[in-house]
Amino acid sequence: MRIRQVRAFPLSLRYDQPQRTSQRAYTMVSICLIRVDTDDGIFGVGECLARFGATAYARLVEDLLRPRLLDRNPLEIGAIWDELRSTLNGRSGGILFEAIAGIDIALWDIKGKAFGRPLYQLFGGYERSRVPVYASSIMVGEDVPSAAERIRSCGFDKIKMKIGESVPTELERIATLRKCVGDDVTIMVDANYIYTEHEALQIADGAAEHRLEWLEEPLNPENRQAYHRLAMRSRVPLAAGESEFTAHDAADLITSRTVDYIQPDVTRHGGISECLRTAVLADIFDVKFAPHVGFSGAICVAASLHLAAAASNTYAVECMTTPSAFREELTAVPFGFYNQVEAGTVSVPQDPGLGIEIDWETVERLGA
After folding, report:
1. 243 and which of 182, 221, 317, 322 could share a cystine (Cβ 3.0–4.6 Å)?
2. Which pTM was predicted?
3. Looking at the domain that runs over 3-116, which CATH code has it been given?
4. 51-61, pLDDT tens digit by residue?
């Protein structure tokens, strides 16, 4: 079996209602869908995070990376990953690694189809048919009681809230959320790295009485020393990892036990291959695995479900509750959809590979 074609499809989506985090109000997002075809008639699909400027990702994949893939054996996933990584010199990160992530996911999809098995069965480890999820997210500035009621009605027992305004304002919102959902629902908060070290500690101290599961990305991801100091003083466990591009990048957060939850995004974090490495490393150091999805699409969701189904240290997969054509219309049958939650879990695709069928008419309609 040999790779005969590699194509990239930049896609964009405009929200009916802006999605506000601490960083900005998102009115439009993008992803880049990857398709790799073989001479055996099998093709695989992948996704690059490509939050903005998806056409640039498509050009990188087709102009720079495709020549290195043509006529390769698609099952040599590790060797191909290493070669693609060497395309550019320097530290890992940026558009190249998000592009590699999309290709890597597509190659794993091919492998699963070639062996006639869903991906989680090829990863080894656990084989869960359902995995726990948490609801994401009550957005910054959103009315907490109404959002909490909407999310609870979908069957979630874990809810995340975005924070990013003043410390007193957000402590009041956290208290309101706990009052709304009672003691039986797990809550976590996500700051999207807006706070200073001092402010983050104030959040942790003030919210500890409300039994937060985690405080996510309170600080700029590059500020590692502040993360280490905060972890030593925080009364709330820390979560991070969506900003990391490889297992090597995430290693210091894990081995130092700075975080209790590691959250790689498979469409940024080098694809399935690197996420598997990160999950194993985290397990060694007793750190929980909680794959990030964010504003990504159906391929990201499917890959994350397979990773979570296999990893021994899985805590939960992020499940977005905001309607999105990227997740609900890009495939013939959606998986990991917020309306599919039962007792805080969703089902894992059981067909070979990623186990999803792309709706190519939707791809054409969403083309950037």
Report:
1. 221
2. 0.97
3. 3.30.390.10
4. 999 999 999 99
